[in-house]
Amino acid sequence: MFNIEEELKKLPPNPGVYIMHDKYDAIIYVGKAVNLNRRVHSYFRASTKKTVKIQRMVSQIDHFEYIVTDSELEALVLENNLIKEHRPKYNTMLKDDKTYPYIKVTMGEAFPRLVFSRTMKKDRSKYFGPYTSATSVKDTIELLNKLFCLRTCRKVLPRDVGKDRPCLNYHMKQCSAPCSGKITEEEYRERVEGALEFLNGHYAPILRSLEEKMNAASEEMDFEEAIRYRDLLNSVKSVAQKQKITESDQEDKDVIAMASDERDAVMQVFFVRGGKLIGRDHFYMTNVSEISKSEVMENFIKQFYAGTPYVPRTIMLQEEIEDMALIEQWLSGRKGSRVHLVVPKIGTKEKLVLLAAKNAEMVLSKDKERIKREEGRTIGAAKEIASAIGIERADRIEAFDISNISGFQNVGSMVVFEKGKSRRSDYRKFRIKSVDGPDDYACMREVLTRRFLHGLEEKRQYKERQMDETFGSFTKFPDLLLMDGGRGQVNIAKEVLESLHIDIPVCGMVKDDHHRTRGLYFNNEEIPIERDSEGFKLITRIQDEAHRFAIEYHRSLRRSEGVHSVLDDIKGVGPSRRKALMRYFRSIEEIKGAETEELEKVPEISRSQAEEIYRFFHPDTPLRE
Fold this sequence. Notes:
The protein is of the alpha+beta class and 625 residues long. 45% of the residues lie in helices and 19% in strands. It contains 20 helices and 21 strands. The protein starts with a helix and ends in an 8-residue tail after the last helix.
């Protein structure tokens, strides 16, 4: 039994992170502290003034844990990681988890390429971005490849020079064919430098060069070439016009401002690279009631820059945040050079921040109705289900299904919905080990037993390590188990849970004569649900998803088993020889019908192996001499 008063006495006066759990063992809040003892005590001290939200959170605390760190900076990083992993109910959360595209120039290669990337690595490549539109990035890469005739292939050069003829791009005058030695490394590098100049925003030399080439081609009556240069010229002008100059210092900056109401906040970010506004994006923050704008801004900065690979030199904010110096130190460590957080008060910089704030207000106003509709479909639907069967909540629902064909390759699926939305990262597949034949009840018993035994073991390891590692995928138990069937499946689930001493509500989905869900089976009675309700629609989505996931897994196994059972069972035939046979004969039927002499024609097949294959398909037919 966890005694909060006793545990509070054990808290050290060190920096660290504290984790609040409710009675279901769910993490409801994660926070950092310079002094764990003082900070955690403040939640339970009657004299401490608390907001309604904090009071509500404290009333749900069943037990807490903590991790001691060497510094406040380490605590900040750990807090970020834990919030991102567990998404606690009472933490202010960044709803969007986006990754931005970059243009990567592979400078570590002898003949560099321009490639699309969503990650930045510490390699010898140069990265440009982030950009907010993947389409724009792909269009820009295509334009630069055409403009400078850069290669798009993945050949290792100069190792592979001369091994193949030039590709179609060379004949279309869209590649300089370094793979065939048509251009030297020095000449190719000059072209790459031109592309880098373009990406750095220096368009004038390129525009001038293209115009000169277009006019020269026109004078020589080479109108086809003139049209090609004209099209490239127009493409460059189009890209150049999209770049809006905002600053003369040509620095990389992010500009962050926000707008909020009683429930949500919209964070607007302008991305300025090389003094040019290259894009903007907005993000939603939840659980912002009774929290100051400064605190919301700080939470956003920590969560956003923990997940983005690029940190600019300057971040311009709408207002001061509490841990300004600490966050500057953390961001500087991530970037590898000094990062500045500034709050502009006058001039063009202040106007840029005000423009970002105005955009945030517009997004918040426009999306309020959409957000309400979305919540009705997700969170509201989950609440409807919980209300219909009389349980406290259904924030996390797990659904299971079994798939087989006459008992062949029994498999199980587990799908997870949190707050009415699918959580694909928590989906799991089970290949049934203990059941032969079409016994769905026995299969379901195995799947559920394995799922919850695994979860209990992870919980045990988690507690032993005292949070040194993050939760495993099975550790978080659901608020509701949803079974694809009625009384029988529900009873199987209850038996498994009781044997493991786990208390989780179990609900079955009852079908009508047309195999459509008509209601829920809970506590030995059928509970009807309005077919037009959002709760019913969510049940249908969960049921369909569990069924789809199981069927897809079963199909994938059948495909692999089909190949394996026919060819891989032949002595001496492994993956490489199987591929060689399929390349030569094109079908299993042709292999079956082939004589030994024909099988021998496959380069990877010897005389003895050809005889082995023939005997496999014709066990009763003697080999011809």
